[in-house]
Amino acid sequence: QVQLVESGGRLVQAGGSLRLSCAASGRTFSIYAMGWFRQGPGKEREFVTAITLIGGSTYYADSVKGRFTISRDNAKNTVYLQMSSLKPEDTAVYYCAASRRGLYAGDYDYWGQGTQVTVSS
């Protein structure tokens, strides 16, 4: 009932910046929060950041705090992930997710297809 489409992933040099976008469609009125997760090679999917659509409260994993910024444009039903000072360990498939309940790890109901971010050293 909610569709998410990520875009913006590409190859980038270490120290560079990249901006990911996630556009939501469908029953977007039901969304409480949206977030970003990532899954690197041979690793489990991990939480990166999330934002509540009402109020805009943000939460970040320690590994990205100070380097990544999440934002939203409710009029466009879109969230963004601005990534700076990228490191090779940031290499992963980045997934956009939407929650109807909360922003804890198990609360996300809808997922995008993922977009590949590769950071070269």
Multimeric state: single chain
Amino- and carboxy-terminal Cα gap: 40 Å
Give the percentage of residues in beta strands: over 45%
Number of helices: 0
Poorly predicted tracts of residues: none
Helix/sheet category = mainly beta
Shape: globular
Q: How much is the average pLDDT?
A: 96
Rg, please?
Answer: 13 Å
In percent, how helical is the residue content?
Answer: under 10%
Short précis:
With 121 residues, this protein is mainly β. 0% of the residues lie in helices and 54% in strands.
How would the blueprint of this fold be written?
Blueprint: E1 2-7, E2 11-13, E3 18-26, E4 33-39, E5 46-52, E6 58-60, E7 68-73, E8 78-83, E9 92-99, E10 108-111, E11 115-120
Parallel strand pairs: 2-11
Antiparallel strand pairs: 1-3, 3-8, 4-5, 4-9, 5-6, 7-8, 9-10, 9-11
Describe the structure.
By secondary structure, this protein is mostly beta strands. Helix content is 0%, strand content 54%. It is globular and about 40 Å long. The model has no long low-confidence stretch (mean pLDDT 96).
Features:
121 residues; 4-stranded antiparallel sheet; single chain; mainly beta
